[in-house]
Amino acid sequence: MKDLYEEYKALLFTVAYRMLGSIKDAEDIVHDVFIQLESVNLTEIENLKSYLIKMVTNKSLNLLQSARKQREVYPGEWLPEPIVSLDANEPLDKLLKEESVSYAFVVLLQQLTDLERGIYLLREVLSYDYQNIAEMLDRSEESCRKVYSRAKQKLEKKKQFNKKNMGKANELAELFLHSIEIGNFDSFINQLTEDVVLITDGGGKARAAIYPIFSKQRVSAFLQGVYKRGTFEGELRIVNVNGEIGILQSNQGSPVKLIIFDHNDREIQNIYVVINPDKLKEIGHKFSF
Questions:
Q1: Which of 38, 43, 78, 180 qualifies as a FRET site for 190, CA 20 to 30 Å off?
Q2: C-alpha distances in Å from residue 78, one per residue of 27, 54, 62, 160, 244
Q3: Domain for residue 88, yes or no?
Q4: Phi (first) and psi of residue 186, to 5 degrees
């Protein structure tokens, strides 16, 4: 069982994390799966990998269903919990650099219903055919096809940038830090698309914008406004977020804000700001992967 855990734990974690957007919940589900597996006759399982992914997906869907009311009354915008590594050489870093675990992609998946997200991941990311997906989720193939088609149409309407240029990512982060240092964001604002969107998540526990902020002009005004209120005071450092670049702000050694840019080689389309302390407490979390 230990060998199976070592072989599949990272894969299963990424499946659960993309479904849930929560580190602890994803780890708990993987743990539960292997506890349950101890009572299963493995010789009767034809494809163990598919069996494990089926278990993780269905457990994730069940958890999302039970937590739906809590999500519906969440104050303001909800963002996934980021995976922040303070050491870029951690083994998990290689896994997180896959596009399917990027923070922007996990955010994008939240535009889907729980079922759409599950079927989209099984089909688009894990490359299962409709017969296998139908068996995993106990649905008809026709139903799975329709749900996948609906999910794909939703995501195609959203702009998603592929962030492969780490040099550009570092450049943007350094530019943002320099803007804070001099108190002028003009150079940074020039790196934004005209229809840029800034989303903050305070979870009702930290001051944050209740609604997304749209357009370069309004984002510029927002950044200048919060700067004048001393919002960026404290230690600022560049960190690894889901295998990419982010900016972590700390006060007296405690994380208070995480900023992530969704960009391509030229400009930034989305800015995500996580301020909810519950989503920052796992920063530097040591995975066993």
A1: 78
A2: 20, 26, 19, 18, 20
A3: no
A4: -55, -45
Q: How far apart are CA 195 and CA 187, in angstroms?
A: 17
Identify whether residues 68 and 173 lie together within a single domain.
no
In terms of residue numbers, what domain contains 234? 166-279
What is the pTM for the complete model shown?
A: 0.92
- Give per-residue burial for 232-245: e unless 16+ CB within 10 Å, then b: bebebebbbbbbbb
User: Using CA atoms, how far apart are residues 23 and 281, in angstroms rounded to an integer?
Assistant: 11
B/e letters for 176-186, b = 16+ CB within 10 Å, e = fewer, are beebbeeeebe
How many domains is the chain partitioned into structurally? 2
Closest C-alpha among 266, 102, 272 to residue 192? 266
Residue count (the chain) = 289
- For residue 276, which amino acid is it? N
Any idea which residue has 């840029």 for tokens? 196
Q: Which of 73, 93, 113 is the last residue of a domain?
A: 73
Q: Using the 3D structure, point to which of 73, 94, 125 is the last residue of a domain.
A: 73
Cβ-proximal residues to 189 (8 Å cutoff; 6+ apart), any chain? 216, 219, 220, 223
Please report whether residue 252 resides in a domain.
yes
Mention every residue, 6+ apart, whose C-beta is less than 8 A from residue 164.
none
User: Comparing 84-88, 231-235, 257-261, which segment has the lowest mean pLDDT?
Assistant: 84-88
Q: Is residue 268 part of a domain?
A: yes
Q: 84 in the Ramachandran plot: left (φ > 0), alpha (ψ -120 to 50) or beta?
A: beta
How buried is 258 (Cβ within 10 angstroms: 0-12 exposed, 13-18 middle, 19+ buried)?
Answer: buried
For residue 139, which phi and psi values (nearest 5 degrees)?
Answer: -135, 170
What percentage of residues in the chain have a pLDDT greater than 90? 75
Q: Is residue 149 part of a domain?
A: no
